[in-house]
Write a structure and sequence with these properties.
The protein has 16 helices and no strands.
Length: 339
Amino acid sequence: MERKQEKLFYIFNFGLTIFMSIPLFFAYIHKKDTTIFPLAQMLYPAFGVMMARVLTKGSPKKIFYPYLFGTILVILGTLSIFFTDSISLNLFSQGVIIVLSLYIIFQVRMLYKIDSKELYRSGLHLGHIKKGIPWVLFFASMIFLRFVFGHLLIGTMDEFIDILKSPRTLFLILLLPINFILSWIPFFGEEYGWRYFLQPILQKKFGMKKGILLLGCIWGIWHLPLNLMFYNSPDQGLLSVLTQFITCIGYGIFFGFLYQKTDSIWIVSFLHYMNNNLAVLLSGKGPEALQNNVYTWGEVGLHGLITFVFFGGFLLAKEFQGRNTLPTMEERLEYRRAP
C-alpha cells in the first residue's frame, strides 16, 4: 500500500507541475503576469498526498476535500490568466487561500476535540511544537545574517540599514505571526508533501542522511519550471537550477532536522512561510524581488557557502543518526492510539 501511495503522490504532484508548466510557458512568452503560478504550485505536494490517501485509505473529509477543492479552484483561476486580468486572478486566489486557511484551522480545532487520533494519523497534530520555537528564532537570525553578509560583500550596507529602519518593514515583520493564520495553506501545501509524506519514506528506504539529501534534490527538481520562467529567465537556467538545488538541499537538511525533532508539520510550515516573506521584506523590493533575478557564478558560490555553513552541519545532528523515528503515512494509519 505504501508503494502505491508513493506512486500516486508522484503522479498527482509532479503531474500537475508538468501540466501547469505548459500554460506557464505560454504566459511567459506572451509577457503575462505569472505571479499566480508559484502560489498554485505550492499547493500540489499536499494535493498529491491527499489524493493518495483518499484513493487508498480514506481521509478526514472535512479537511482533505476542502483543500482538494480549493486547489482545483486556484488551478482553474491560474488557467484563466489568458482570459482575464491578473489583478482579479490574484485577488481571487488570495481569497481562496484566506478562506481555506481559516476554514481548515477551524476543522483541525474541531478534530482535536472529537478525534485526536485522526489528527496524528494525518500528521496534523501539533507535535512537540515548543521544542521548535528556539529553532525558529535561529532560522530567522540566519536569514538576517545572510542579507548582512551579502550587503557587506557588495558594499551596500547603507541601503540595507535604510530598509531595516523603514517603519513599514518593521511593522510587516511584526505582523508575520498574525498573517500566518490567514496565509499558511500554501506553505503547508509544500511541507505536507515533502516533510510529512516523503521524508519518512525516503529515510526508510535510503537511510537518514541519504534520504534527506535525496529529498532536497527532488524538491529542487520540482521547482524547475519556476526557475526557468519565473524566478529567473531561461538564459539563467544552469545558475538558477544550481541555486535552487543549493537552497533545497540546505534548507531540506534544516527543515528535516526540525521536523524530526518536533514531529510538527506546523513548525516547518511556519519556517517556510517566514523564509519566503522575510526574503521579500528584507530585500526592500516587495514581491517582485522573487522574479527575474540575475545571478553570477560568484553569487551562486557565495550562496552555497553561506547555506551549507549555516545548515549543512545539522546533517551530523543526533536526529539523523541511527534509524528513522518518524513513521510514514501508512505506518501512522496503522496506529490505533495517538502517542
